[in-house]
Amino acid sequence: MKSKNNMHSKVRSRYGSSLNDGKGHQDMHEASSRRAFLRNTGLFSLGSLMAINGHSMSQLAINPLTMGLLTNDTDRTLILIRLSGGNDGLNTIVERGNDEYYNIRPTIAISEENMWNLSDEIGMPNTTLSLQPLWEDGRMKVIHNVGYPQPNFSHFRSSDIWASASDSNEVIETGWIGRAMEAEFGSFLETPPSVPPAIQIGIENNLIFAGSDANMSLSISNPTEFYRIAQQGQLYNTAELNSCPAEAELKYARQTANNAFRYSSTIQEAYRKGTTKSEYPDNYLAEQLAIVARLIKGQLGTKVYMVTLGGFDTHSNQNDNRHPKLMTYLSESIAAFMADMDADNLGEKVLGMTFSEFGRTIYENGSFGTDHGTGGPMILFGGEELGNGFVGTPPDLINTDDYGDPGYSIDFRSVYGSILDGWLGIDDRVVDHVLGDQNKINGLVPPGDFPAGLNAQNILLGYRPSKVLGHIDIQYSLNKGANTRLSLVKLNGTPYRTLFESYIDRGSYTYTLDPPKAVVEEGSYMLELRSGGKTHRRHILVK
């Protein structure tokens, strides 16, 4: 294979992406830490964390879309495994026999004798041998070189892009799962489903689950601890909080906390009923997956779980038991989890997906590590219906950009869309509205026989700030043409302002609200869509 000469001397360095950038790299990590702190303390968005008797507990804004997911006859569950820090894809999925790989990674490349074969062309390091049975049984897929146009190399910004499914130059404060959970069924804090629609193991409230009202997931570190904390608190009285905007916001926060409390006994009961039948290794990821396994086996009914394995920011001494150890943790934990699922014949009901905020540079740096790079592989695992094989093409290590980074072959949003549509059964039009018009990957996941959703008439997709300053884009979609009215309602239920009322054909639409023109005062309201004999509401703050 042709080699690029003097590659190290030809590539440019991106500001902040390398340890050598000094203050730039430090500033990037400090910004990331501040962002995580804000999100975890609830300052980032309403409805993220509450303090209960001195303990921090994530709260949940409930949405009837999730009711539809929870009543789905398929019982399918999605497990998201976040590889935090930027996983080195080239040392995870190795293109065997690629001379350029060994030329640009003279000390950290995975040698032939230290990898097992996915195919004649592709291998994985022996530290991931625990995944070999899944691959050989047709229960694992590899998606090569996943990324997006004009990638960002900041940890927090790229994490937000992957979580929100936005373009690199677009800031969206909602996540792809959160929007999907809002999409088919309008948001009602007053009518929570019986179980949490999504759960994150850990304390961080990830943007992935953020809806326009609040985060759509519940974050727990331990079900027993969560139950104990919840029992120490009280359900808040909201009946008399309607007289002013400040009270309206307080009422909204209290309603959200109340919903979180309601789940404590349900989660505890599911955790008690579920038992592990697999020997999990001693690492943090395995501990998280063991909790997920017990909740699934206890028939909690939650449709989406997310767990995290950190430590992938391998700028130096990458192969000095750092990345290899993480690969071992990942593979052994997944293998134990799937063995646990199989013990109760649940393997076909789960789909796992790994992802990371970015990849690493294709060449090693002077510290025997790698710096922030572009895309990387994703791994899917599940039952025998998943199959095995490859999607996309490995990164081109010769034809790179000025920074030495290859182009991506698969847009991450096409993976998301394929999973929402194929695995969770979200309507195509909803998926396109949530993610944009992405090309879905045919055959990526096993197709499901999904029943019609509870909301077959219409769906309200929510809102976001408009490109015009001070305006709000209200996005909605109708599955059936009908007389439709969009209006604002006061939080006490009193009608306030009709925005439009007319017959609307089936399709997706955007109504741009100009508050002064519509004579709408600042404050909190419920956005109300009436169409096809159904009414959907969502909290909205006009300012």
Low-confidence stretches: 5-9, 34-73, 185-191, 452-457
Mean pLDDT value: 80
Number of helices: 14
What is the beta-strand fraction? 15-25%
Radius of gyration: 24 Å
Helix residue percentage:
25-40%
Distance between the termini: 60 Å
Number of strands: 21
Largest sheet: 9 strands, mixed
Shape: globular
Structural class: alpha/beta
Tally of distinct domains = 2
Please provide a brief summary of the model:
The chain has helices at residues 7-10, 23-41, 64-70, 99-104, 132-136, 155-164, 176-183, 223-232, 245-262, 264-273, 284-297, 323-343, 412-422, 428-435, and strands at residues 49-52, 55-58, 77-83, 94-95, 115-117, 122-125, 140-147, 198-201, 218-220, 304-309, 350-355, 376-381, 389-391, 410-411, 458-465, 472-478, 482-489, 495-504, 507-513, 523-531, 534-542. By secondary structure, it is an alpha/beta fold. Helix 8 runs antiparallel to helix 10 (264-273) and helix 10 (264-273) crosses helix 11.
What does this structure look like?
There is one protein chain. The chain is α/β, with parallel strands linked by helices. It is built from 14 helices and 21 strands. It has helices at 7-10, 23-41, 64-70, 99-104, 132-136, 155-164, 176-183, 223-232, 245-262, 264-273, 284-297, 323-343, 412-422, 428-435, and strands at residues 49-52, 55-58, 77-83, 94-95, 115-117, 122-125, 140-147, 198-201, 218-220, 304-309, 350-355, 376-381, 389-391, 410-411, 458-465, 472-478, 482-489, 495-504, 507-513, 523-531, 534-542. The strands form 5 sheets. Strands 3, 7, 8, 9, 10, 11, 12, 13 and 14 form a 9-stranded mixed sheet that branches. A 4-stranded antiparallel sheet has the order 18-17-20-21. Strands 4-6-5 form a 3-stranded antiparallel sheet, with no helix packed on it. The model is unreliable at 5-9, 34-73, 185-191 and 452-457 (pLDDT under 50).
